Every structure is written in C-alpha cells, then in structure tokens.
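W.,

You were right to be curious about this one. When I first looked at the sequence I had no strong expectations either way, so I just let the prediction run and decided to look at it fresh. Below is the sequence, 472 residues in total, followed by the output.
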Amino acid sequence: MEKNRRILIVIFLFGIMVPSFGTVLASNASVPPQISSPDDKNQDVYSSLYVDELQAENLGMIYFGTQDIRIDPLVLLIFGYSLQTEAENPISWDENAKIEIQTNVEKPTTVDIMVELKSGKYNFNSVSITQDRFVDYDSQILSKYVIEDYIKGFFMELDVYSEESHLNLAFDGGDKQLIYDGVNSLGLLNTNFNLSSEADGFLIKKLVSKINPRSEKSLEEFIQNKKKSLIDNFELLGPKSKINSKNGIIGPVSASWSDYSYGVIHNPRDDIDWVNDDAPSVMYESDHIDIVINRADVSESLMKSDLQYYNKDYYESEWTFRYKDILCYYVVAHGTDADSNWVITSLSKLKPSEVSDLWYTSGCYSSYPSRMIIFCTSCYGLIDYDMADAFVDDGADAFVGCLTLSTGGSISDLGYYYPNYNVHGFLIELCREGNTVYASRNARIAAGNTYYSTTYQAYHWPIVGSGSVYLY
C-alpha cells in the first residue's frame, strides 16, 4: 500500500454500531469531559491540542488504524445563485444543484470536483484539499475541509459534523460568479475522507464558541434560513451607465471591450454590524465606481472569490478585452494580537499568504489588486503589516487599518457615539468627496476622542502604501 494513500480516520462516538474500518485502539469511551470555556462563549479563539489514542478516548472519539480510502464519490446537494453584476437581471437562483467530490486516483492527496448547476456542469481536477479538526466546549467534533484551486478560482469550505455537513462554495464561472451553500445529513460516519498521515496521534483545535451554527433549529428550518440569508445578506448597486470612450456607445461594455470598477464591502461577522446602511450608497457616489457589492455574514470562500473575480482582467483576442478592478475595499475583519490573520468565523482565519495567492497571471488571464484602496475598520486589522503587504506588494495603492483596538477601547471609543462619521468618515471623504487616502484616514480619526491626541491616534491608524492617492 502506498504511503501517501494511507490516512487516518477519526469518528465521534455516539453509542451506535460503528463499522469496523480498522483496528479500534480506543473503544468503550467513558462520558467525555466538558472543555472549560470562559463566560463569553462568543469569543472566536481556539488553541491547538495534540491528541494521542488515550486522550482521544477521553474526548469521546474512536481512534482507528490507517487504511486506504477513496470517496466513491461523495454527493452533496447545494443551493445558490449565479451572479452577473453587469447584467439587466444579475441574479439567477438555483435550488436543485449538486456537487460530487471524489479522490483523484493518480494524486490521492487531491480531489476531483463536478458541480452540476442550472447554468451547466463544471469540472475541476486535482484540486488541493486540507483538513483541520476542532472540538468545542461541549466536546462536539468537527472535521473542516478546505478545497481550493486558486488559478481556476475555485473556493470551497466543507464542515463535517457528527451527523451533518455544511458547505460554502464560490467559484469563477467565466462570465458569471457562482455562489452556493449546502446542508446535508451526511456526517463523520458517512464521509470518510480524513487526510491525516500521523500514526500515533492527531492535532485538535480546541474551540471556545459552540461549534455547530444550527443550534436548536431543525435541519429543514436551518436550510430554509440559509437560503433566505444568501439573498438577504447581499446588496448590489449599479452598474452606472457611462460613455465608452472607444466607440461612443452608452454603457461600459461593447462586443469587444468592457471595463467595470467595483466597490466591495465585506462583513464576515454575523454578531457585529459596523457597516451602516448608507455605506454602500456613499461608496456608489464615487465618480469612479460603477458597481458596489455589499455582503454581510460572508464566508472565507466567498471573500476570496470576490477579491479575485472582481479584479480579473483578460483578453480573448488582440481586440477583445475585459477588465474588472476593485477600487475600494471596505472590510470588517477582526485580527488578533497573536498573529496577522483575519478572524472570519470561529472555524476559519484568512491568512496573508492566502491573500497573496489570489493574485496571478496565467495565459491571457490575470488578477491583481491594482489601484485598490483597502480600509479595514476592525480591531487589530493591521497587527503586524503582513496583511497590508499581501495587498500592497501586488499592486494595491494603500491599506488603512488599526494596530490595536478599533472602537470601544483605548484608541477610539467615539466609534460608539459617532458611528456614521467616525467609522464611515473614511468612505465619505474618499468616495463622496474624492479626497486622498491621507485625508480620508484623518477623517476616520477627526472626531477623535478627548482622551487621546490626533497624532497618537494616527500612529495607531497607519497608512501602508501611499497616502497621496485617491480613487481614479
């Protein structure tokens, strides 16, 4: 048996009959102890814990020996929509789609994907797949799989719980972006494609917050809520009509040329809403932004897809060009004082290296953050400059973020008293007034609080890149 085809299976014990996939090293587990957690269970913090077979028993898991496994294939039902932002009818809803995931025979550490949608079939071969394991304070177990192909613009997260699985999917469909979710009653006992190669233990990430977002809802109710939230958490403004300077027709598109500039707002947190209702319209007032995309409770997969897809340029021939550029990116993504990652949910963090991987050139296609101005209005959004460098080093004009606490803390607690201007003053100056990044950053702290000087606050809201640039 080839070494790279030997994988580890870890299954949560529910007191039901378990198929004998391999040698059981820990069975008849006692009632697992609860993992202690602080009073605030909403804190998105986890720590790593390396678990051997004896500790696995204490956590209520069964630890199996290694064996050869292939998905044959895993079929999951999904629902969602296709998005063509520049079209007269931009959204096409699709409730009866499916995705098939199967191990690639020649490259067993990758998977082959077939997505069957109303708009057609899409195939992705030899797609990278990685796995993390989590346990929450109720000792609930989760295997999280991240399945991605950066060059092809395919981004997917699959969270496999004890008795069900949830997925988020967003990918490049050429002339459209495809955004889908899925909730299926297939859990750890049904999926069986763990990727660990350790023979003596495995790494568990210990969560403070509760692991399954379904809570007390029934599976069907949760699915219906997910379908509703896909649309409710999305807002689209535009496109504006404008004169095509190359042929004089009205509209930013012709048979041989299109050029759209975007403003994008991402708020991945469902428990914090710092994006005021007027933020998209303020961004849309810019003379240089044609389309605004506003997403709340956005997944990591969809954040990556938006950043890459709406910065994508390509040419089909010597005379046919398609341009997309995100000029203004406003993101509510919390960092931590421990690393330079953005916390998206309790189960995912967006790393600077993952942002850097979004930018590429392949044949006649390319995606770079050229001319982009990023405003991260969250605590520790710029903890050690690595995230800013992931944008600016590949072409972004400027990145503004906070080194420490954004609101409610030592630097700018006026965020609570002047939310419209203190939090969104940056957008007002940059987009509505057409001012520079430097002036816009100063507007963010201009309301200033009486405890700290403007100079002191400016130190904690640095500009990476150029402060003299503006939207163009």
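Here's what jumped out at me. The CA atoms of residues 72 and 344 lie 32 Å apart. And, maybe more interesting for your project: Residues 219-232 form the longest helix (14 residues).

Coffee later to discuss?

I.
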